[in-house]
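Quick start: read one record
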Amino acid sequence: MLDIWIALCLAGRKKYLLFAGLLCIQGAVAFAQVDSTSRTDSLEAAVFTGRTEANYLSKGKELRTEVISSAGLMKMACCTLAESFENSASVTVGYADATTGARQIRLLGLSGIYTQMLDENRPVMRGITAPYGLSYMPGPWLESIQVGKGSPSVVNGTESMTGSINLEHHKPTDGKPLFLNASVMNDTKTDFNVTSSLQVTDNLYTVLMGHVDGNFRTYDMNGDGFADEPSLLQVNAANRWLWYSPDVQVRWGFRYVHDLRKGGQMDGPWKSDITNDLANAYLKVGRSLRDDGSASMALVADYTLQRTGAFIGRNGYGARQHSVFVNLIYHNAISDSHDLTAGVNATLDLLQEDILGSGQELHDVRQKLMQVAPYAEYTYRHGEVLSVIAGLSGTIIPERGFYPVPRVTVKYQPTDPLVFRLNGGRGIRFSHPVPDHIGILSTGKRILGDLSRRMLEDAWTFGGNATFYFNDSAYLSVDYFQTRFASALFADRESAEVISLYSLAGQDAWSQNVQVDFSIEPVDRLSLTLTGRFTDARAWQPSGLVRELPLTPRLKAVLNAQYKTRANRWIFDVTASLNGSSRVYDFMKDLRHDGELLYPNGRTPVYPLLYAQITRRFRGFDIYIGGENLTGSMQMLPVIDPDHPFSETFDAASVWGPLMGAKFYAGFRVTVWK
């Protein structure tokens, strides 16, 4: 194994010598700390993985929360967060356009910009980071993903409208001195990940994480002359630390991402060239105020610098964002029934944008966005039967005013297997015209509207959930949520030549979402999960009509099956999904392919997706093979008017389905246990 590690180190490119050197040093230390003659990792790993459910609804949390564990993240190649939700019907991931590789999620039928992304309860992927942020979080770094629907706690800010997605990383105290994961796809996409957790002293722990991915060539499977996915190269490194004593705990860390993307015509002048750099540092300090730990104070501070440079056809976008988040938290467990959390958080964003849209005038944007939010959250518990969480944040935005943000969550468990939940609250966030609608840069259309206006978007979400647990591995769950906007910034893209940004204030805009989840283990080691979702999302348009949101599927069904042989030596995973139709933009209704209308009824076709993976486990070593989109489903004509890429009718941003056909991959995982 040490020989393999040395070979990987020597294979590193000179450009990233420092990055490779850090990984090699820590990897060598990890191997040195492990006595291979006394390893018992095989049995321990099998027991741990076997008892870790892949995807499940948390029974204990007050908010309706779906958990995707590390075992769930291993069901697929799962290179980044953008590829980690195929087993979930709650979250839908798609492309923002057909040229840049930018991904976007949907939760409760609405764009992911209305979902708060959290990195261990620190807000991330905000502003100009949002279009590419999903690709910056490697799946093998994560211990779990927690998808919460509805209005979450006010402690972490007020930007959540439809829910939150919290990412839990592998901890410095993990019992894995070394974990390696590498995979390669038939489209040449290659992915390499490493995490290494070490104990430095009795009180000091660290974990080093590295990620490199890229592809060697691009393909044009639909024959439109454009690369289906851009050529990619991403280097991503992070280092996290933990120091603790009986009364004080300190966590801090650093991360850097360098991301290159080149796409466009295979043999033509229309190109996309994007460079992203992200640097992040954070600090968490917690101190106990009582010997029994019932009262504590904590300080959370986070700083992020994101730089983006993009040339997409005739459009140009250069941006820089400095973001600071500070949260001071006081917690007091008054008694077994009463709990109080209070504090104040503040967010500061310094934004600089240079925007050139389809040869139009240059927009030079310089803005400072700031908000300060004192908050309090009271929790009442009556044993295991009833929990009530009432929170209120008073958000102060300079030059805009004071905004109260109330949120309430109720959990009622009359019997052990039956759980009811109710949730409601308000969310507010600043709009970001270009990052929120990044696809508009992948068109030749004229963009009308104020690209510098950061209006305050305001929405209320209400809903509930009922779950019946047949046993530890089987449940039936039904939930309903509705989000209604008081104000928002929308993009009207119905025209073939013009995109209009418009403010929605006082007009109707809503999304209703019903979902049913059923999970069962009919026989030993076979688990089945079936999920169905219905979405009705509509919004007022400048035409005066309230219409269904375009390219938003009304129906989705997901079936996941996993079978494990004894001792987990073989693991078989299959995920099948059926994606319902969605309304297309008005200008797409007349599109033809081979002389036939693509959307004769103004809606996209229903299409299936199939994923499969086989894993063979050895002593501390896994190999796996798999396939994605095995049904070969592809969107026809994802690039509209490809023969005239510099015309106003060119559009590469109306994507509703897969851009490539079936893909196959193979990979391995190496785990060294203490």
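The chain has one domain: 34-672.
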